[in-house]
């Protein structure tokens, strides 16, 4: 955490004026957790107040508010411990009543006989300790939230209280630099586990291998035995689960009891599908729900702009409606959509199960080399997974992607009204999480423009080599909707350094000019990104 | 033209007085600035010292008030109407230049060629 100061040049250079010294520290509070930093003594020889502490909060919800407060206390030389100004002492002794004063003095002076009270005429030095220590005043504060989570250090504005007359005053520049990182639980913890049967090519259902599968971070890890999970044994099979993965639940297989779940990923040019079989319909249900929540969590994690997230989510939910009609029951996560309410814009529907945690073992040490002055540590909400770190980078580059969503994509509310009629239609046998989207696309959004995201994410990546980017078949249609653009953006950001980046960005897709509002939004983002070298016309 | 913390900054400067031009509702000067203490100095193409966070002129509108007054691309702005520009954020600099109540800005700018010129003139007249 770094808080720059702004001393007057006379103070700073010529050592004019008394040495004004303050002791400061920061309090960071999130929900029920509160931490403090070490204390720093500040005087005019310092240009910045630096707190080197790293602070992790483990129980943050997506809507968190992290309050940072800077407390300061003047530490002038004559306030050294053990003495009080004479005036104060005499006032105290005279303002207390005679008997109370006597008792107080007796109490304060260990073992001494009660000193004579002469009515305040002579100053009496009272020991300080009854008033515990110096008093700190709130000098500045600010509140950070999910939107401030970024991949690198950012400058945040401070609200400053007090003025030059206060003893605890420090000439703050008015901002605070720190890095706020967040990592959702879905990246570090197991979200779902259970037994599944893994279909081997050409095998008949009796011979499908039973595996214990764990859904965690960006993969589905399949182990031969449940104990293997704890034992750190290599999983027998790892299936990538990311924003580009397509998961389909097929109709009840007459040959087996449960339903088949097909997970498809695109590795390079090929599509690889794994088929897993569940024991029962309920299991399928649970798994699909877990997958859905996982997608959602990954999207939330990777995009700071919730409005764009919502468009993504809505698209997926449309697909889910189909799923639901086939499954016959209405999953809990669908219930909100039955009301056709667009109130989901902005926040997750379910009481947030995606939680932020601070348990990741690595700290992606990707400090921008151009800011040598910023400290290496700052309060973090847990350590950022590489996924999100890449994504938020590209988020700032592809700043228009959230904007472009709205370009070809109608208002959420109208989306809904469109869709609520759909479940009644007969659906093809194989349910697809993306089939709905393609029909939707063909229907009304032909005019939808798309924005060519020509940005490329920074190449360093800490992801395990999970080939991630894929072209969903949706993009093959001539009019790409913004969803595929956004997924490609996200996939851009989560693609690993092996170079398999989504080709969408370089396709000759129809390019539509962003409206002036979008442009100004883009400009705003460009302005706020300290990596750009800003130029202003005057 | 970087500074040593604690030491005064010295530079050879030129005074430039620009009359703002009214364009509709706006008063324009006809140039663009870059830099600032909140910007990344490494990206400044005009600065000699890549840690210089000063305000530089990055673009001049041809025939605009700034060009007419003698401002050139690459100039470093030291003061605007008496306000220091060597230690300001980008936005602060912009604000000082776009004050609606002022229709003229007096800049103190420095540029490499000025320093060179002074050096040369000093050199050709050795001290006695």
From TrEMBL, chain A:
It holds the Pfam family Anillin. Residues 189-296 form the PH domain. Residues 462-538 are annotated as: Disordered. Signal peptide: none annotated. Residues 462-518 have a biased composition (Low complexity). InterPro entries: AHD, Cytokinesis/Rho-signaling, PH-like_dom_sf, PH_domain. This is PH domain-containing protein. It comes from Xenotaenia resolanae. The lineage of its organism: Eukaryota, Metazoa, Chordata, Craniata, Vertebrata.
UniProtKB/TrEMBL annotation, chain B:
Residues 15-112 form the PDZ domain. It comes from the Eukaryota. SMART domains: PDZ. InterPro entries: PDZ (IPR001478), PDZ_sf (IPR036034), Synaptic_Scaffolding_LAP-MAGUK (IPR050614). PANTHER family: DISCS LARGE (PTHR23119), PDZ DOMAIN-CONTAINING PROTEIN (PTHR23119:SF50). This is Tax1-binding protein 3. It comes from Xenotaenia resolanae.
């Amino acid at each position: 955490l770094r808080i720059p100061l702004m001393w007057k040049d006379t103070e700073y250079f010529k050592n004019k004026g008394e040495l004004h010294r303050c002791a400061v520290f920061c309090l960071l509070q999130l929900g029920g957790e509160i931490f403090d930093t070490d204390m720093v003594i500040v005087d005019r020889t310092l240009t910045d107040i630096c707190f080197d502490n790293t602070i992790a909060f483990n129980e943050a919800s997506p809507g968190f508010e992290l309050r940072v407060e800077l407390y300061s206390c003047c530490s002038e030389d004559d306030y050294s411990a053990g003495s009080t100004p004479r005036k104060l002492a005499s006032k105290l002794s005279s303002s207390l009543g005679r008997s109370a004063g006597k008792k107080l003095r007796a109490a304060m002076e260990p073992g001494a006989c009660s000193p004579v009270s002469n009515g305040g005429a002579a100053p009496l030095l009272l020991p300080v300790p009854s008033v515990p220590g110096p008093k700190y005043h709130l000098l500045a504060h600010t509140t950070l939230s999910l939107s401030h989570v970024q991949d690198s250090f950012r400058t945040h504005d401070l609200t400053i209280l007090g003025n030059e007359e206060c003893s605890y005053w420090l000439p703050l520049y008015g901002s605070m630099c720190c890095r706020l990182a967040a990592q959702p639980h879905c990246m570090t913890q197991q979200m779902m586990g259970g037994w599944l049967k893994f279909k081997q090519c050409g095998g008949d259902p009796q011979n499908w291998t039973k595996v214990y599968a764990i859904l965690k971070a960006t993969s589905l890890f399949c182990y031969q035995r449940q104990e293997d999970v704890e034992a750190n044994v290599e999983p027998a099979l790892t299936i990538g689960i990311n924003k580009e993965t397509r998961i389909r639940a097929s109709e009840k297989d007459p040959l087996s009891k449960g339903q088949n779940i097909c997970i498809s990923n695109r590795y390079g040019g090929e599509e690889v599908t794994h088929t897993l079989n569940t024991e029962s319909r309920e299991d399928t249900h649970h798994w699909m729900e877990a997958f859905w929540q996982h997608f959602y969590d990954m999207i939330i994690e990777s995009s700071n702009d919730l409005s764009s997230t919502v468009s993504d989510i809505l698209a997926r939910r449309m697909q889910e409606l189909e799923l639901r009609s086939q499954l016959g029951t209405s999953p809990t996560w669908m219930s909100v959509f039955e009301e056709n309410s667009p109130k989901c814009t902005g926040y997750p529907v379910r009481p947030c199960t995606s939680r932020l945690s601070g348990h990741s073992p690595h700290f992606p040490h990707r400090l921008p080399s151009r800011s040598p002055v910023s400290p290496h540590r700052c309060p973090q909400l847990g350590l950022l997974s590489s996924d999100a770190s890449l994504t938020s980078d590209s988020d700032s580059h592809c700043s228009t992607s959230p904007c472009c969503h709205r370009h070809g994509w109608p208002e959420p509310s109208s989306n809904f009204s469109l869709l609520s009629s759909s479940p009644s239609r007969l659906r093809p046998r194989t349910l697809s999480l993306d089939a709905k989207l393609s029909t939707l696309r063909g229907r009304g959004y032909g005019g939808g423009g798309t924005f060519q995201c020509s940005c490329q994410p920074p190449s360093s990546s800490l992801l395990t080599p999970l080939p991630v980017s894929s072209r969903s078949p949706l993009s093959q249609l001539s009019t790409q909707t913004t969803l595929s653009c956004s997924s490609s953006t996200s996939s851009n950001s989560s693609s690993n350094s092996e170079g398999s980046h989504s080709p969408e960005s370089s396709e000759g897709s129809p390019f539509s000019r962003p409206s002036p509002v979008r442009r100004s939004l883009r400009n705003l983002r460009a302005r706020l990104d300290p990596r750009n070298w800003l130029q202003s016309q005057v | 033209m970087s500074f040593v913390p604690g030491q005064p900054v010295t530079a050879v400067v030129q005074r430039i007085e620009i009359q703002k031009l009214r364009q509709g509702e706006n008063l324009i000067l006809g140039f663009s600035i870059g830099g600032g203490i909140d910007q990344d100095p490494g990206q400044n193409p005009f600065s000699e010292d890549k840690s210089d966070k000063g305000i530089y002129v990055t673009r001049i509108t041809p025939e605009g008030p700034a060009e007419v007054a003698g401002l050139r691309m690459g100039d470093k702005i030291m003061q605007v109407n008496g306000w220091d520009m060597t230690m300001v954020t980008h936005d602060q600099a912009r604000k000082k230049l776009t004050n609606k109540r002022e229709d003229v800005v007096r800049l103190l700018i420095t540029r490499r060629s000025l320093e060179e010129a002074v050096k040369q003139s000093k050199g050709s007249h050795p001290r006695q």
